[in-house]
Design brief:
421 residues; Rossmann fold; seven-stranded mixed beta sheet; six-stranded mixed beta sheet; 12 helices
Length: 421
């Protein structure tokens, strides 16, 4: 595919041929050989070679050995991160080159071949970081536009090789670069967050999700411009919404709201603190007004703090047949876990207070440090204390385009449950 490059890649550093020899502890070796992608600073026992030893630049290829000098694997070095090495390969020695990354890309696409073959959905994740053996790198697809987000500066020396491969293997016509905050704050070699790499991507970019139309904001939206991970859960809400009243808390750009309306909900109320996101939710609903069900749905939006809005709705004696609660992460650090669980419990209480008898609670968590077991137990503690009973409809986790290959890679969990009586 002919690519019109708009980004100047000439200032990017190259990985070079000088490999860094990194020896790690035997405990770390066990974790790596079991498939864990991270080697922390405390697990590194010695560093030699490379362009400058331990001070070698981010992205230097690290050849990882154990304490007996046996080969463990290959990874990307970053002396500026507590995760010193992110693993690319383990087992027998290999060469990190264009063929290596092409094979990885093709493997990732193969996992998503059913999505790629669909004529109903063209918005999904193509590369899911560590879980697709691209640690710290995410690639999302919105129609013909790809959004590449880097969470680790170690990828900069490999972009000149990787970007043409992505264009060739995926067939994407447009590409936008997004940078994680920690990456954007460092040396970016002439690149910047929200930059067009090739093609002429539009803002917003339109894409399809199970035949519904949505807009993504690849240059400026949260994450890569939309939240793709809840796609299957949104569809499920749509299938149970016919004739129902639906409350969509933390609605963001209205994904659950639009699916509920398309599924025949008589009314949908979307709530989010972000006024701009609510504007997008309104436009997403308008994009699907050619559907009779969407046109007939009574859609209201409320801009405000979710906790305060739910209390206020209760005071107004409002109630709903389906309450969807999909908040942002409440535990970005380990020390936030206790407070995060408390917040989930409070949301469960508020959600139950707003449910009609026999109604459905849909509650989700994207906090990786709060496990599925902890999350579901928190919900159960609320219902036990209230002497209410939730009958599970289904508990869901990650969709096929968000595979999980190590414990910390699992973050998404959701519960669909009907209130008994």
């Amino acid at each position: 595919m002919a690519v019109s490059w708009q980004a100047d890649l000439s200032d990017l550093p190259t990985a070079g041929d000088k490999r860094l020899a990194v020896r790690i502890s035997n405990d770390a070796r066990k974790h790596v050989r079991r498939g864990h992608p991270w080697v922390f600073d405390g697990a590194v026992t010695s560093v030699t070679g490379g362009p400058a030893g331990e001070q070698s630049p981010p992205g230097t290829i690290a050849v990882v050995f154990d304490e007996s000098r046996d080969f463990v694997g290959l990874g990307l070095w970053d002396a500026n991160s507590p995760i010193r090495v992110t693993m690319l390969h383990r087992g027998k020695p290999a060469t990190i080159n264009e063929d290596f990354f092409r094979e990885r890309l093709e493997q990732a696409l193969d996992i998503r071949r059913n999505l790629a073959a669909s004529s109903h959905t063209d918005g999904y994740r193509l590369i899911n970081g560590e879980n697709d053996q691209f640690p710290g790198l995410v690639l999302d697809k919105y129609g013909q536009t790809g959004v590449l987000k880097l969470y680790r500066a170690a990828w900069f020396p490999h972009l000149a090789m990787l970007l043409p491969l992505i264009a060739d293997v995926t067939g994407l016509r447009h590409m936008v670069l997004r940078l994680g905050r920690n990456v954007a704050d460092g040396e970016c070699f002439g690149l910047h967050n929200g930059q067009t790499i090739y093609g002429e991507p539009e803002e917003p970019t339109l894409f399809r999700e199970h035949d519904l139309r949505f807009e993504a904001h690849p240059f400026s939206g949260q994450k890569t411009g939309h939240f793709l991970d809840q796609r299957d859960n949104r569809v499920r809400v749509g299938t149970m919404s016919a004739g129902k009243s639906v409350l969509d808390m933390f609605a963001c750009t209205g994904g659950f709201s639009v699916h509920a309306a398309a599924g025949g909900a008589r009314s949908v109320t979307s709530v989010d603190l972000n006024a701009s996101a609510m504007g997008t939710a309104i436009r997403n609903m308008e994009l699907n007004k050619e559907r009779r069900a969407v046109a007939q749905c009574d859609h209201k939006t409320i801009v405000g703090d979710a906790f305060e809005v739910m209390v206020d709705l209760q005071r107004q004696k409002r109630s709903y047949d389906i309450v969807v609660i999909d908040p942002p992460s409440f535990a970005q650090r380990q020390e936030n876990v206790k407070a995060g669980l408390k917040a989930y419990k409070r949301l469960t209480e508020l959600g139950l207070d707003l449910l009609n008898r026999g109604g459905v609670l849909v509650q989700a968590s994207c906090s990786s440090r709060i496990t599925a077991e902890m999350f579901h137990e928190a919900i159960d503690q609320v219902t036990w204390a209230r002497r209410q009973r939730l009958i599970d409809i289904v508990r869901t986790e990650h969709a096929v385009d968000h595979p999980v290959n190590f414990a910390e890679g699992a973050y998404l969990k959701a519960r669909f449950a009907r209130i008994d009586g």
